Q: What sequence folds into this?
């Protein structure tokens, strides 16, 4: 079977109607969307691609580990009615290029470059590993108006991955078993229930995820490749909302607290009854929270009192 063509053509060429992938039993019916390709050159020369769609204030979407711009497609129509959405492919997947050796700092620059290319202040919504990159990107560009971070896995000293996971992933890659790599990651790192893995494998979203498996080992090494230094954010002025699933693992709750303590404009909001994969299951309460937050006036917020506060919607 020949290689499938990319989901869109050359940069800035209209795409026409796109069928949005969805998980059977977990998302609404298949939808269509009109969009166009996005391409921005990062400072190291890497091309960062993605999808641009909608009308309104700019909103940049940054996916997490194992994702691509396709991660957002099932509920993108809710956003394109209100925003011009820039759903990027982080480097190493989709329409984006890559460079070796990999360094997470280049991802900070990638996001800042996309924001700067827009030409006006943009809101940013980022998930997981992408949320760490987006937070650091906000130090590189004045173009971020408001920032929403969904479960940024800031290293705090708590163990984030099972022992030997990186080795198990590399073993599966060495024998040419991308499905084994992805299933192992979903079970052990994402803690996805077996019924959700089965649904995902039967959905159109499975193949886009398979295409990202070579990036998984480098991203689960976040505790070794990144350090969060709160003093660098002492003068930070971007209003920031941190979202966390009530039932997500303890290390993510601790990461949210550490981020809120280190970022003077940040506050935490918990999603009752939600687990780590809340961005993959409907209804999407985080979408409503994000829309409300970025729709608030852009005047600087006062610095919060020490200590994060959990609130329920």
A:
């Amino acid at each position: 079977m020949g290689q499938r063509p990319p989901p869109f053509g050359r940069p800035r060429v209209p795409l026409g109607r796109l069928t949005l992938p969805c998980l059977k039993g977990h998302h609404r019916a298949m939808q269509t969307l009109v969009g166009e390709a996005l391409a921005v050159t990062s400072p190291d020369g890497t091309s960062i691609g993605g999808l641009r769609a909608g009308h309104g204030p700019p909103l940049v979407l940054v996916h997490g580990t194992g994702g691509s711009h396709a991660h957002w497609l099932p509920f993108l129509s809710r956003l394109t009615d209100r925003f011009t959405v820039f759903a990027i492919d982080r480097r190493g997947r989709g329409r984006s290029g890559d460079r070796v050796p990999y360094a997470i700092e280049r991802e900070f620059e990638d996001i800042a470059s996309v924001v700067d290319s827009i030409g006006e202040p943009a809101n940013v919504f980022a998930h997981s590993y992408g949320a760490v990159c987006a937070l650091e990107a906000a130090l590189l560009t004045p173009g971020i108006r408001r920032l929403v971070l969904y479960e940024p896995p800031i290293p705090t000293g708590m163990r984030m991955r099972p022992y030997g996971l990186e080795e198990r992933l590399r073993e599966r890659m060495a024998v040419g078993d991308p499905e084994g790599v992805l299933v192992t990651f979903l079970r052990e790192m994402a803690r996805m229930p077996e019924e959700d893995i089965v649904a995902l494998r039967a959905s159109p979203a499975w193949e886009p995820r398979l295409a990202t498996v070579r990036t998984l080992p480098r991203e689960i090494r976040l505790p070794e490749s990144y350090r969060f230094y709160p003093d660098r954010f002492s003068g930070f002025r971007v209003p920031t909302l941190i979202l966390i699933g009530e039932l997500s693992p303890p290390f993510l709750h601790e990461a949210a607290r550490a981020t809120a303590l280190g970022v003077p404009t940040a506050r935490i909001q918990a999603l009752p009854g939600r687990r780590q994969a809340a961005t993959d299951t409907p209804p999407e309460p985080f979408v409503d929270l994000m829309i409300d937050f970025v729709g608030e006036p852009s005047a600087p917020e006062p610095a919060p009192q020490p200590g994060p506060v959990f609130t329920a919607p």
Q: What stands out?
A: The domain at 14-157+227-294 is CATH 3.40.50.1820 (Rossmann fold). The first strand starts at residue 14 and ends at 19. Residues 12 and 37 are 5 Å apart (CA to CA). The beta strands are 14-19, 32-41, 47-54, 58-62, 84-88, 122-127, 144-150, 240-245, 266-271.
